[in-house]
Structures are given as C-alpha cells and as structure tokens.
Design goal:
By secondary structure, this protein is an alpha+beta fold. The chain is about 40% helix and about 25% strand. The chain has one domain (about 1-280): 3-Layer(aba) Sandwich (Aminopeptidase). It binds coenzyme A.
C-alpha cells in the first residue's frame, strides 16, 4: 500500500513538473499546434474513435462523417488526419478537405504486425555497432539538456518530435530512443506510442517512427537500430502487435528503412489536412 502511495505521488509530481517545464520543438506554428493537440486530447482521450501519437489528435479509422471530423480537428489544431483509410477511398476525403479550404496531404501507411517483430528481433540479434555509440531510452529522469539535443537533431532532419512529456512517456504509453556518441552528441532518435484506445478496433496497434538520423551519420543502420528497439520495447512493455507509420511517396530512405524492419507499404493511407490559416506555409513534419 505504502509503495503504491509513493508511486502515485511520484506520478503526480512528474505530471505537474512536465506541465511546468514542458519543452516544445519546432516553428511557432508547430509548437502551438502540438499544445492545442495536448489540450484537445484531455477532452477526447476516452473516445475510441480518436488516436493520439504525442503530437496531434486524429481519427483512428474511417467513420460515416470522417471528412467533417477531420476538418474540425484540423481547424482546431492546424493539422489532423484519418488513419487506416483504404487507398481507393482516400481521394473523396482529400477533395472534401480541399473544398473546405484546407490543404490535403496523403501519407502511405506503412504497416507491419508479426513481420515487424520478427524482423526487428533478427536485426537486433545481428547488428554490431562499431562506432562506440550507445542506444538509450528516454525516461522521466532524462535531463532537459538531452531532451533538447534530441529535439534539435530531429528538427534538423525535418522530423517534428513530441514535446518532452511525450518523449518521457508521461501521461502516454510509449517509448522514445536515441543514439549517443561517446562524447554525448545525439545522432539518431525515434519513438512509438500506443495510439489507439484499448476498447477501440485496434487496441494492440502502435504508431511507430519519428525516426531521424543526423545527416553525417546516415547509412550506418542507426535508424534501423533505433526503430527495431522501439518495436521490441513496445511489444514487450505494452503488448503491441502492430506498428504503422506515415511515409511520403518521395522518401526512399524511410521506405527502405521501414521495409528492412518488416513494416511495409499497406493498402491504407493516412488522409491528412493542414489549415493554411493557422499553419501558413509550415509543414507538420517530414
Ligand atoms: C530516413 C532516415 C531516418 C534513415 O536513417 P539512416 O540511419 O541513414 O538509415 P539506415 O542506415 O538504418 O538505413 C535503413 C535502410 O535505408 C536504406 N537507405 C538509406 N538511405 C537511402 C536512400 N537515400 N535511398 C534508398 N535507400 C536508402 C539503407 O540502405 C537501409 O536499407 P537496407 O538495410 O535494406 O540496406 C534518415 O535518412 C533521415 O533522417 N531522413 C530525414 C528524416 C526522415 O525522412 N525521417 C523519416 C520520416 S517518415
């Protein structure tokens, strides 16, 4: 009993601390978008039709009124999408967003279930790092300076990371990993989150990705290392059995990295929209 009480008090202190000391990344429009998303998630987190991956709230799957809901979410946050949209149904959604004055954006939904777990385990069994690098997990005690370095490296690669509370897994079920050199430089990172409601249709699915490697360190399998560890940690800690990520058609390195880990192009897309009034020319992420 005493142990549970102490843990509960520690959790409360961390939540309050994270509100007070939150670290956000990106352009002002991206920071404001993520802040609105976290506020919106407080209101929507109990509804299984919504999904949250530590950056924005989206629709977890097609509904009869998907377009209206995504348009509303986009006008509130600046960006939103509908997940698991069958490829042949995406055009109608995207054109509804455009007709509403939003900018539609389509991401191929790369997706893997058992293939992701087996490929990730196989990768980790054989991978040998020869540069003296360490793969580490962000936790509630990770120093702010490290969080800032991860976020800045990720932004240089064009990938919007979650704020510090998301990376630390405070109030959200997820893991965030990073690769550090012997002198403490962050050279790669990524994360994954159980982004669907336990009572919804995809309780064992995770959003996985946000992978970024410093441009001087690319081609050394660092993204695979980070990505594989995230898959196995999500499977072990949270029982995740499905892993998906949004990849643009013009991103061959990301496509190759996903496929290497058994996460392949699926018959689904993410049908997303940005609001130019709120976001201007700022894109959400790469
Ligand atoms: C995508 C990214 C994270 C890959 O990082 P990385 O550490 O260089 O990747 P890895 O070394 O682990 O390589 C993974 C696979 O991609 C392949 N690859 C790497 N660069 C490639 C390129 N330009 N074109 C095609 N394949 C490429 C590798 O050969 C490897 O495949 P293989 O194992 O079958 O040979 C990195 O390029 C990056 O940060 N890009 C910008 C941000 C981004 O696009 N993130 C993904 C968002 S969806």
């Amino acid at each position: 009993m005493a142990v549970y009480t102490v843990r509960w008090i520690e959790t409360c202190i961390r939540k309050v601390h994270s509100i007070v000391t939150e670290i956000n990344f990106g352009e002002p429009a991206q920071i404001a978008m993520v802040q609105r998303a976290y506020a919106l998630w407080v209101l929507l987190k109990d509804d299984p039709i919504y999904s949250f991956q530590a950056r924005t709230v989206s629709l977890a799957k097609m509904q009869t009124d998907s377009a209206e809901r995504v348009i509303a979410l986009t006008r509130l946050q600046g960006y939103a999408s509908c997940h698991f949209v069958p490829r042949d149904q995406a055009a109608d959604l995207l054109s509804a967003y455009d007709s509403a004055g939003l900018n539609s954006v389509q991401w191929d939904q790369y997706w893997g279930r058992e293939s992701a777990i087996s490929a990730s385990r196989a990768f980790l069994e054989t991978y040998q790092n020869t540069d003296g690098l360490s793969l580490k997990t962000v936790n509630p005690d990770t120093p702010d300076a490290v969080i800032r370095s991860i976020g800045e490296m990720s932004m240089r690669a064009g990938v919007l990371p979650p704020p510090a509370s998301g990376m630390r897994g405070i109030g959200i079920r997820g893991v965030y990993q990073y690769v550090e050199t012997a002198d403490g430089t962050i050279v790669a990172s990524g994360g994954g989150f159980m982004s669907y409601h336990p009572d919804g249709p995809r309780p064992d699915e995770a959003f996985w990705g946000m992978l970024a490697t410093d441009e001087h360190w690319r081609g050394k399998r660092l993204a695979c290392w980070v990505g594989a560890q995230i898959v196995t940690d999500l499977a072990t800690i949270y029982g995740a059995r499905g892993f998906s990520s949004g990849v643009k058609a013009n991103n061959p390195s990301s496509q190759a990295m996903c496929s290497r880990l058994g996460i392949n192009q699926s018959d689904f897309v993410y049908a997303g929209a940005t609001d130019p009034v709120i976001m201007g020319n700022t894109s959400v992420t790469r």
